[in-house]
Every structure is written in C-alpha cells, then in structure tokens.
Amino acid sequence: MKLVLLGAPGAGKGTQAKKLIEKFTIPQISTGDLLRAAVAAESELGQEAKSFMDKGELVPDSVVLGMVEERLGQDDCAQGYILDGFPRNTAQAEALDAMLAELGMELDSALSVEVPLEDLMKRLTGRRTCRDCGQMYNIYFNAPAEEGKCDKCGGALFQRDDDREETIRKRLEVYNEQTAPLIDYYSGKGILKSVEGTGDIEGIFANVCATLGL
Ligand code: ADP
Ligand code: ADP
Ligand code: ZN
Q1: Where do the domains of the chain lie, and which CATH numbers do they carry?
Q2: pTM tops 0.90
C-alpha cells in the first residue's frame, strides 16, 4: 500500500495513520514529525524549519523534499508507506511524482479525510501528544485515562507549540490556499478516495479500510 493522506490540520490523519501502520506494518512518513524531530535535535535544518512552523507557514519545499526523498529510499519503504502531511502543495505533489518515477514506485491512493472547518479548532487546541510513542489524545474528545499520561506507554503528554489559536488560524488558511487544491490534483489522476472524518475513531477506521479495499 502506497498511500497519501490528505486533510486539513486536525482532520485525524495522524490518528488514522497510526492505526493503519499497526494493522499493516508499513511505515508512516509524517513530514511534521520529521521536522519536529529536526527541531528537537537543534540541527541546522531544524532551526530553519522552526521559524516557519511557529508562524503556521509551510517550510520551504527544498527542505521538505530532501527529507522525504531520503526517507522513501530506505529499505522499510519497499513494501509500502503512508505519507502523512505530505505533499502540502502542487509543487510538492509534482516533485513526489518525479521521485516515485525514479524509484519505480506508484501511489495506490490519495485518501482525503473530510472534517467540517468548525470542528477543527477544538480538535487542535485540545490535541495532546505522547512524548515517547507519539500517540495522539484530545482533552475534549479522547482524553487519556490519567491526565497528562499516555495510556499506551505511560509517557508524558505535551501540547505542540503551533496548536495555539492564532497559529491554527494561519495553518487553516494555508491549508485552504495551498493544500486543498491537491484534492483536484489526485482526482485528476484517478486515485482520489475520500472518507468522513467525523464520528468515533474506530468507525472512521473501519470506513478507511473499506474505502481502500483493505
Ligand atoms: P498537522 O498534523 O496539524 O496538519 P503537521 O504536523 O503535518 O501538522 O505540520 C506541522 C507544521 O510543519 C506545518 O504547519 C508546517 O509548518 C510544517 N510542515 C509539515 N509538513 C510539511 C510539508 N510537507 N511542507 C511544508 N511544511 C510542512
Ligand atoms: P492531523 O494529523 O490530521 O492533524 P490528528 O490525528 O493529530 O490530526 O488529530 C487531531 C486531534 O483530533 C487530536 O487531538 C486527536 O486525538 C483528535 N481526533 C482525531 N480523530 C478524532 C475524531 N474522530 N473525533 C474527535 N477527535 C479526533
Ligand atoms: Zn505513549
């Protein structure tokens, strides 16, 4: 399975990707996670990226494309992968096509997770993430059993720097302007599928699997 996940910030791409990789043992390639790891490592790339992330803007394509190309070339991607949060604009989508052609790979599907705009703010301000295993929670919708602590591994939960109202507004604007056009891009290629992203996480996952024919 070679899959691109599309959807607004907070649509639940990461949540569904985590469930897919558990069930199908293929890697999730999240450019957001890769960038946050670079920021945490205080690498040169991370420092460049952080200024854009803090503003809710896209990190320059050159930075992201290099990261993705390196990741896709690793052995564990041969059997498939889930691209989560990438591509984010048409230039990235075209670069991805070129990269895949070079590697002799082809995408199976681009799956759009659809959530109404008015739900996204609360999802994002309420998001908490496990520092150790990356599991996502939400203080409003799916809180951990014990506050601030991961159900899966006991790790401490944190709130992302960019999950603040002002930055979220900017990210949603960037999504509408730059990322939403990818729905037409993949529709034009005949590989677009879509799924309702509201309701309970297990129910959405069942629809994701059915929609992808898994
Ligand atoms: P979310 O899951 O809320 O959509 P991500 O973790 O995917 O957020 O991304 C967080 C931030 O990282 C983005 O606002 C952007 O600054 C940067 N980023 C992530 N992926 C990309 C990408 N493919 N291209 C450019 N910037 C990216
Ligand atoms: P994305 O990767 O698309 O930005 P996430 O998977 O990180 O989105 O989810 C954003 C927030 O919404 C998280 O706090 C997550 O726990 C929560 N969430 C995910 N799916 C649902 C759902 N079906 N209903 C309510 N909240 C959800
Ligand atoms: Zn954890």
Answers
A1: 2-27+74-116+178-212 (3.40.50.300)
A2: yes
